[in-house]
Amino acid sequence: MLTLASRLRALDDAALRRTLEIRAVPATGIRDFFDLAETLLEPEAVQRTLAQLDRATLAVLAVAGELAVETDPDSAPPAPALAELTERLSDLAGSPVPEADVAARAAVLDSLMLGRLADDRFRPYDAVAAQLLVWPALGLPTATELAGAPAPSALAGVSATDTRFTDRLAAERAFAAVSSIAELVTELAREPARELSRGGLGLPDTKRLAAVMGVDLEAVASVVATAARADLIAHSDGYWNETEAGEAWLLEGTARRWATIAQSWHAALPPDVRGILARRPGVSWGEGLRSFVAWLYPAGGEWMDDRVTEFADDAELIGITAHQTTSPAGAAVLAGDLDAAIATMTAALPAEVGAVYLQNDLSIVSPGPLAPSIDARLRGLADVESRELALSYRISATSVNRALAAGENADSLLDFLRTVSLTGIPQPVDYLIRESAARYGRVRVGATDPAASPAQSYVQSEDPALLGTIAVDQTLAPLGLVRVDENRLASRFGSDVVFWALSDARYPVAAENAAGEIVHLRRHQLARVLPVSTVDPTIALVEKLRASDGGEGQAADAWLARQLDSAIKSKQTVVVSIAMPGGVVVDYLLEPASVGGGRFRARDRRADIERTLPLSSIISITPAP
Fold first, then answer.
1. Distance between CA atoms of 29 and 236, rounded to whole angstroms?
2. Looking at the predicted structure, is the pLDDT value of residue 452 above 80?
3. In whole angstroms, what is the distance from residue 195 CA to residue 501 CA?
4. Which Pfam families match (predicted)?
């Protein structure tokens, strides 16, 4: 502990914070560097860290500990050289182990404060080596087993028939996932979903989204999480809304939509999980992979297995896998080749179509999955009736009015339909659009001048009868509409609230500005994906440790006393540098016995006599080599 405490004290603040972070040191209960060293070397803390190390790294640690003991079990021998460690590992493995690989793993262990790497020598701390010695009693492998046990047999390959089946099924799942998420993003743009204070969506919103996406209630949370992970939707002010990225995503092709979701899934994989899966593309994720995970992480197989399982469920959802077998596109994602994944998925997905059938009954039928840009514009003009592979829509006066409110006009709508219709424009469709455009704006909503009226908005129309209908409409009663004159009503609510209430009530309403010009309102603002601001607890802990250290300019008797106390408890021999009269510095090899009254008593190992020395004369204390 003394060695580690001294090492921690010598770190700069950035390195110390990094150590606290990677070892997940709690911010409470630590007063000084000795407490920190003691915390890092506690058996539970050591075991938690060992559980996250792969087999090869553990083998370096365990074999280094054994070599150190074999050199001289009764003294403090020098740390084993990396060349010696490499030779022993190669003998145990039965094949050459690169020294560069051993050095890299020793560097990782050094950064984790599990051992010390210096001058091409590596030695684990005693508490770490002691923890590895109890592994056999815990059913965990010994150093020999860590270095010598071969990996499980290679996972069985997938036959050509199975590959074709997997490819087809994964493509179906990918298409279904993209379609469901597209419906989710579109629906949240129309009507956000409220997030409960305890987390999750309320049952009414869950049912609404399940119906829109065509999924079971239990699947809604997974689809929402997948969309949120890709930043297509975001949680803002208590509601889930569409984001700017989600709005742009809706205009991309199906394969690229899928690639965005797959890329976000891959990016969210913890590095250790990503490393495992990248080693096994194109094979089954069943028991064979679980066996490999258990072998690779012998101290944390269950922990690692849970991590793999967590992302395996989402992989099935979005078509990275099908029946726990990696799809060709999924294998490309795992290998980090997104372009190849897009090309593979494009070939597997059904081709997009760019034309539809317009019917006399005001319905629109797509013969296949529509190009996203066409689908997005049709949704602005018509309501979706069927969300199967072949979409169907229905035009109504309300849907046309919605398109007009978004900035369309009769000519732009008819021109668009002519370009995509395989059956021309039926007369009922033409009549409905032109009639709706002619009626659009018969009711105007705008903001009042605060200096001229206590009301916030007005509703006006040149048709007094229509305005009278609005005034007595009970569905609009919450707006508190008050008659101002024959052609004008006033409300205490804002113009946007009044506008959307009238629009939902299917009145031909338009919003206008102070100059009387029609403006186009957006019902819900896009959510912003904000970075999560968190307070770094390591900063305060480092400041606390530095403050307890007393600063470089002080004698730091407390630090010296703690070092000596630690050496006494562990019966550790230390080298104490003493400032003698005349400026001479003398190094004593001492075994401390007691500390008190500003002095300490110790046994001089070289002279074999007892010495009593003042703490004020100590320049430094270092563990004996």
1. 36
2. no
3. 23
4. Helicase_C_3 (PF13625)
